[in-house]
Design brief:
201 residues, globular, alpha+beta, single chain, five-stranded antiparallel sheet
């Protein structure tokens, strides 16, 4: 399975996003700031490309798969850019991250690939699996004793802010998709219309 191995701090700085969006809570940083002071104004194409790269990087999706998501969004009813973002939010690896069962999307993708999660009682090891309203996502019984999941239990558990479109049962290591995500639930700055303009050329 192909994966994105770009350095987090450098890419966040280049794309103008906070490392917190990636699950790093601002701890990642880079000292390379001197060049930023002499950057020229970006062209329209450069701005469009940067928005696409930003979204691909945040969700950990490579070009071929991202293009497929876009083409399906373009054929679906509604606003293409919003449909694209909502589809990416529905990915199982993103849901696991949003529910607080992994510290980053990269870690979530690995945990899903290794078969640690059930969806509606069935093992799913496909990070790109799209959840639906009413789906129940939980850590399987044999994985609950793992150190990776124990850190999310008890009084000293890592604090997690769960999005409005899901409910989380912390001690049960379980969450429910109460509704599909909406554009307002996307919590990082992105101008998705630029992505649509880029692909529409």
């Amino acid at each position: 399975m192909a994966k994105n191995t770009q350095p987090i701090a450098k890419r966040c700085e280049a794309l103008g996003i906070s490392p917190a969006v990636m699950g790093y809570n601002g701890k990642k940083s880079t000292k390379r700031t001197a060049k930023n002071q002499m950057r020229r104004k970006k062209s329209e194409y450069a701005l469009q490309l940067q928005e696409k790269q930003k979204v691909k990087f945040i969700y950990g999706v490579l070009e071929k798969q991202f293009r497929t998501y876009y083409e399906k969004a373009a054929k679906a009813p509604g606003v293409t850019g919003e449909t694209l973002l909502v589809t990416l939010e529905r990915r199982l690896d993103n849901v696991v991250f949003r529910m607080g069962f992994a510290l980053t999307r990269r870690e979530a993708r690995q945990l899903v690939s290794h078969g640690h999660f059930l969806v509606n009682g069935k093992r799913v090891n496909i990070p790109s699996y799209l959840v639906k309203a009413g789906d129940v996502v939980e850590v399987k019984d044999t994985s609950r004793s793992s150190v990776k999941f124990k850190r999310f239990l008890g009084e000293d558990a890592i604090a997690v802010t769960v999005p409005a479109w899901m409910d989380r049962e912390k001690e049960a290591l379980k969450g429910t998709i109460t509704r599909l995500p909406e554009r307002a639930d996307i919590d990082f700055p992105v101008e998705e219309h630029l992505i649509v303009e880029l692909y529409s050329k």
